[in-house]
Structure formats: C-alpha cells, structure tokens
Amino acid sequence: MKTTLLLLAAFFITANAAGAATTDDVKWINQCVRDNKGDAAANVVLKYCTCMNNKMSDSETQSITQWEKTHVAERKACDREAGWK
Fold first, then answer.
1. Which of 6, 15, 43, 68 could form a cystine bridge with 75, CB 3.0-4.6 A?
2. CA distances (Å), 20 to each of 16, 27, 50, 65, 71, in order?
3. Nearest-CA neighbor of 24 among 58, 75, 68, 55?
C-alpha cells in the first residue's frame, strides 16, 4: 500500500509536468505498474507506464500491457525514455 501511494504521488508529479492526468489515466498506469512489478526499479516502471499511457489514444480500451504487444515502436521508445534495461 505504501509503495502504491508513493507511485501515485510520483505519477501526479510527473503528470503535472507533462499535462493534466485523468482518473482513467491513473487507473491504466496503476494497472501497468502492477503488471510490471519487480521487472525493473519502481521509478523506471512508473516512467515507462506513464510514457506508454501518453502515447495511447484517449479512446483506447486496451490496457497498456495489451496495447504494448502490438505497438513495438512505442514500447521501444518508452523503454529508452524510462531507462529500462
């Protein structure tokens, strides 16, 4: 729970720098963070998930985890931006 709250706080700081975040954005990003938990440092996962969410259309119905499988270029760009190695 504490980690989730820290991730949410970090997301809002990141979102404020990048633009307004919606409740729906937070939901998708939090799901992505849960899906990728333990795969990289928490701050890297959060940056990656935020980047992927920002690349998706507001009308997208797939989760970030589903969407990334068919959007390789976007995934690679977010990997680099987040520092995922």
1. 68
2. 6, 14, 12, 22, 24
3. 58
Number of domains in the chain: 1
* Domain, as residue range, for 7: 2-82
**Positive or negative, the Cα torsion across 44, 38, 60, 6?**
negative
**Encoded amino acid at 12, one letter:** F
Residue-by-residue pLDDT tens, the chain, 85 positions: 445 545 555 555 455 445 556 888 999 999 999 999 999 999 999 999 999 999 999 889 999 999 999 999 999 999 999 998 7
